[in-house]
Amino acid sequence: MRAVQVVETTGPEHLQVREVPEPQPGADQVLVEVHSIGVSFPDLLLSRGEYQLKPEPPFSLGVDVAGVVVSAPESSGLAAGDRVAAVAPYGGASELAVFGTDSVFRLPDALSFDEGAALPMNYLTAEFALHERAGLREGETVLVHGAAGGVGTATIQVAKGMGARVVAVCSTQEKCDYAQAAGADEAVLLEGFKDSVMALTEGRGVDVVVDVVGGSVFTDSLRCLATLGRLLVVGFAAGEGIPEVKVNRLLLNNVDVRGVGWGGYGMMRPGYLHQQWEALLPMIEAGAVKPPIGATYSLDELGRALVDMDQRRTLGKSVVRVR
């Protein structure tokens, strides 16, 4: 079978599509015929050897996939022919892939394979961030940075599904429009966002900031928080280094900064990812969660898809189509 592999950790420009042996599932694994692969930030970091996991090359990329079950343990409740989405630290960017039963989810009929491949990492991260880390309550206001990207649009939709008001922050008007189409109530430009957000909230500020950008927006994000507000640190896509916080600001304003490390938490707790998936299903059925798909690519173009994402040329979640 064909798989997209990192042979040397020299970046997405040097990925190789190679013929590799078909995987043989273990007793607690599901074999999936992959139809679509979600293009994810961890794939980019893995290709450069910059991710917290450092598998020995050669290895296959691929964090999010959707496809059809080939075989599954009887205890999983899955059977050959079932449509599924799945997530793993890496290894899904191939024509066939194996996943632990805890990481495979039945895909609702209302969603395509492309949409299924856009769901697991981004939407489970958003659910973890908002529910577990923020303790988001209905009626609260959430500010989302990088709101037109994959994690951003996922966070918008999950926050709306939980009954929040959502303010999107984006670098261009095109991205603002995209974020509102994904479900945001309001969208403001990154430049001067603090003043815009304070005006929208009549000086009160927001209850939760979800920050996948980091860098220079961090301090103004803190200043946007209402009393008892929570700033969630999800990532550092800006590439400007890791920001620091003066803790007296937290004390004076009664606000929190909270880390969001979904993978290290969820994947270490048997059954947790399925609990999260169950929380998403009513949102999918209600139409609040429907992943917006940006660009689509072939298997041979996964490297280009990662470069496009890295250079912020894409909106929503990019997807590689295998079949």
Automatic annotation (TrEMBL):
Question: InterPro entries from the xrefs?
Answer: ADH-like_C (IPR013149), ADH-like_N (IPR013154), ER (IPR020843), GroES-like_sf (IPR011032), NAD(P)-bd_dom_sf (IPR036291), Quin_OxRdtase/zeta-crystal_CS (IPR002364), Zn-ADH-like_protein (IPR051397)
Q: What is this protein called?
A: NADPH2:quinone reductase
Q: Which GO molecular function, any one, fits this protein according to its record?
A: quinone reductase (NADPH) activity
The yes or no answer to whether the keyword Oxidoreductase is present is yes
Give yes or no: UniProt keyword Oxidoreductase.
Answer: yes
User: For the Enoyl reductase (ER) domain, which residue ranges apply?
Assistant: 11-320
Where does this protein come from, organism-wise?
Answer: Nocardioides marinus
Supply the PANTHER family for this chain: QUINONE OXIDOREDUCTASE-LIKE PROTEIN 2, SHORT-CHAIN DEHYDROGENASE/REDUCTASE
Matching entries from PROSITE patterns are given as:
QOR_ZETA_CRYSTAL (PS01162)
According to its UniProt record, the EC number is 1.6.5.5
Keyword entries, A-Z: Oxidoreductase
